[in-house]
Design brief:
Distance between the termini: 14 Å
Number of strands: 12
Order of helices and strands: EEEEEEHHHEEEEEE
Structural class: alpha+beta
Radius of gyration: 68 Å
Length: 185
Amino acid sequence: MVIIQINQQYARIGLNIKEPAIRLHSVQPELKMESIPGQLTMRSPRPKLHIDQRQCFADAGLRTPEMLRDYLLEQAQQDLLEGIGSIAANGDALAKINGPDIIDIIASKSDKKRDYNVTAIPKQPPRITFETFPVEVAFQPGVINYDFQRGRVDNNFEYGRVEVYLLQKNFVRFACPGKLLDATA
């Protein structure tokens, strides 16, 4: 009888595995804004009030500064001439032998009678007028300046790999450990 020994070795494979990798780099979106506020400018001119009191002054016997100047100048000239005339007349009267004496001249000067009148002035009201002006409005609208930069994602993707290699070869070995008999019949 022949004994045959069979030895068998299975093949073995090796795997080099590289996992897939995804590396993402993101840039955030950016919004830059500058806001200039609106401006409202309002100007309100004041009303102008005109009061004309010339007639009231005239009722009270008052004059404008120009008229008062002219009146006082004329009055001063008249009083000067009347005073000079009165002094000259009194001097002439005293020079006469049969004329009045000083007492008579003084008495004649003090004989003036005063007349007092009471009245309500002014008799006419002052003339009042006014001018109004509209409100001046200037509006400058606000402005928003912006700069928008979009965000982005940079994708660095590396594919995975599987490398297969033979780690151990397979084989079948046949052996006869004993004597070999050659028997023929």
